Amino acid sequence: MTDTLRRATRVHARGHWPTEREAGTVTLAFDDRHRRRMVMTDDAGADFLLDLPRAVALDHGDGLELGDGAYLRVVAADEDLMEVRCGGGTEGFARIAWHLGNRHLPVQIVGETIRLRRDHVIEDMLKGLGASVAAIHAPFAPEGGAYSGQGHGHSHD
């Protein structure tokens, strides 16, 4: 069955692929943007095989190169998140960030806020530490972490 599917075999970073050759989009949640090989469905409803040499973390705006030279643009899906604002300036921000890091939670820094997945237990902890927490629906692109390589999982070829 996979022999008849379009195949995406290379990833090109946002800004490093010919957008005039865009053949469509594929919208993926954060957990679905770190794959090596699986059948996926683009936003027009057509199946394709993601068939990469190794698993990579796909970012919003990356291009998946198809066998015919066309590209699918990766779109980060909106997800249910918490947006955390910390009182107490830099010290308050660092304290909240430390507590989240100590729990090994994936977080995204956006300006003076921290975004993370909704979790009522963590929300209660954050409020107990003096943070304000708002429920939002937005794309999630957490920090790669100290051991994730170059900060992203693909090349700029």
Automatic annotation (TrEMBL):
Q: Which UniProt keywords apply?
A: Chaperone, Cytoplasm, Nickel
Q: Where in the cell is it found?
A: Cytoplasm
Pfam families xrefs: UreE_C, UreE_N
Q: Which InterPro entries match?
A: UreE (IPR012406), UreE_C_dom (IPR007864), UreE_N (IPR004029), UreE_N_sf (IPR036118)
Keyword Manganese belongs to the record:
no
SMART domains noted in UniProt: UreE_N
Q: Which residues form the UreE urease accessory N-terminal domain?
A: 7-72
Is Transferase one of the keywords?
no
Q: Which HAMAP family match?
A: UreE
Functionally, this protein is described as follows: Involved in urease metallocenter assembly. Binds nickel. Probably functions as a nickel donor during metallocenter assembly.
Q: Which family does it belong to?
A: Belongs to the UreE family.
User: What name appears for this protein in its UniProt entry?
Assistant: Urease accessory protein UreE
Q: Which organism is it from?
A: Azospirillum argentinense
